[in-house]
Every structure is written in C-alpha cells, then in structure tokens.
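Hello Y.,

Per our agreement to keep a running log of every chain we model this quarter, I'm adding this entry. I've kept the format consistent with earlier entries: sequence first, then predicted structure.
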Amino acid sequence: MGGVTQPPEHATPRLADIAAQAEVSEATVSRVLNGKAGVAAGTRRRVLAALDVLGYERPLRLHRRSAGLVGLVIPELTNPIFPAFAQIIEQSLAGHGYTPVLCTQMPGGATEDELVEQLEERGVTGIVFLSGLHADTRADPARYARLTSRGVPFVLINGYNPHIDAPFVSPDDGAAARMAVRHLAELGHERIGLAVGPSRYVPSRRKAEGFVAALGESFGLSRGQAERFVQHTLFSVEGGDAAAAALLDEGCTGIVCGSDLMALGAVRAARRRGLDVPAQLSVVGFDDSQLIAFTDPPLTTVRQPVQAMATAAVGALIEEIHDRAQGRQDPARRTEFIFQPELVVRGSTGPVPG
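Predicted structure for the entry above:
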C-alpha cells in the first residue's frame, strides 16, 4: 500500500528532509534544533512545523515554557468559518508563546458566561471572543465590564457594542452586501433578495443596512420597498432554505446570503422547485469557508478576511496584556478595526434569466 512513510519512533531528524520541507538551509535547521539565536521567529516556526509534518518529535530543549493560557470562546464548530478562525488564532497565539484553550458553545452545553468563569478559574492571561454575546444587541454588555474590572484583557471578533471598552475586529458587513448586490445588478438582475441571520445580531443588521442602501443606489428603491426583500432567519442551511423559498415567492432572480451555509440552503430551495443555479437563480454567499469552491455549483461568495482579522485580534490582545502588565491603557486601541471583504466570483451566479 502507498502512503506517507512515518519515521520510526524517536528517530533522529534528518537535516536534509527538514530543510527541504521548511524551504530553508540545513545550517538554519541545525541552529533551530540546537536552540541557537540568530533565527527569525517566522523561520523558526517553519522549521518546527516541518518537524511536526514529518512526524519527528521535537527535541526537549525546544519545549518552551508557556507565556500563559489564552481562552478562545466560539459559538460552534459546525459552521466551517469558526474552525478556520480558531486554527489561525491558535497558531498566532502559539507563535507568541501562549497556550490556546478552545471553548465551544453548543445547544444545551455551557453558556458563554459559564465558559468565561471556567477560564478565569484556570487563570487565563486573556480571552478572544468570536461571534459572542457582544454581537447580540439584546445581551447585557455589563458582563464584559465585570471582566475588565477583574483584570482580564480580551478582544472581540465579529460584532460591536459601543458600551464595551475593548478592541473589536470586524469585516465590513455593509460593504459585503453592497458588492454582492452590485455584482448581481451588473449581471442584469433587478429583483434581488437578502437571506440573513436574526436582526438582533450586529453583523445581520449591518448586512441588511448595506443591502437596503445598495438597492436604493442601484434601482432607486425606498427603504420600505427594499426591506420587503430582506428575510431574517437562522444562520444555517435550513435558514437559507426557508428564506430563499420566501424570496422566490417574491420573484427574486438573485439572492445574497449572510453565510455560505445559508447560500447552500438557497441552492437547495431552488432545486426543490426545479430551478437551475445559476441559469434561473443566482446565489451569493458570505465567508468563503473551506471547500465552498468545490460545491455544485462552486459558490460565488464574499470572502471574509479571516487571516488578517485573526492575526490582528491576537496582536490587539497581546498589546492589551502587555499594557495591563505595565499598568497603562491605550484608549486609541480600544476601538473597532474594520477589514475589507472581497468578492469571489464562481459558478453560482450568472446573467438574469432571459
């Protein structure tokens, strides 16, 4: 049988193999393995990653003492965009010497508040919140003020609340909706709908606002007229299916969705009615999560800049940790950092039906 040949247990790493995998010189590999100075942090991480990929155990001298635990609180793992964020955040934290602790919410499981309490009991150095209660306009922001008063630095991704004193990292949801509408309008679509999550969530509201504004700009629709084509539902395949069914009843030939999973639901709803995507209905997703390029048809979507956002969030948290350790604060950093999304055109959008 073919496959990858794993080195025998406790095998001595071969410099040539590691150098080839890491795309560095053997001399650089030797310096890293012997714990010598003079190697850039990024190069050092590449060599360690090569060790891991090739199945070699790291020498004991390379086992660094952790700078501390950092909690990562995320809503779920079923939506592929959340594991994508988690992977980059954890890699970035590890690169700074911190040990990430992943905390996942699930129906019937621990709440965000309970997870935070457990993290505090373990003495975490900081916390990253991804699409948490900070994005819910009905949630009490006082929980975050209490966290600040207890001396725990944190950063919040995807969602904004002006009453929370912390760094925020978000995509430009309004711009995402506008570029999706413009794309469909350029293809000749005039009846365009939006399938998005519950209106209580900040990202949903921002996408809806961008969508309504885009319909006004492109077709002269009033706010009231445009809101007729907005369907708030769940951020899921089933939610996208239900929203698309309602928008198809309104005669929509193009549907913009608040997530890739919702877009897949919209495609399912179209096919159940015997409609071809994109010949009779064009669908645009949001996120560009892994494997979306391989759906049938490949999904046109607005790419969320996950790498840049996750890296920026970790950087902001590290600065918060350092500031708190030195007894200072920088209000300029306690703001919202907005990242621009990117339209990725694939096979789920086409000209309006003739």
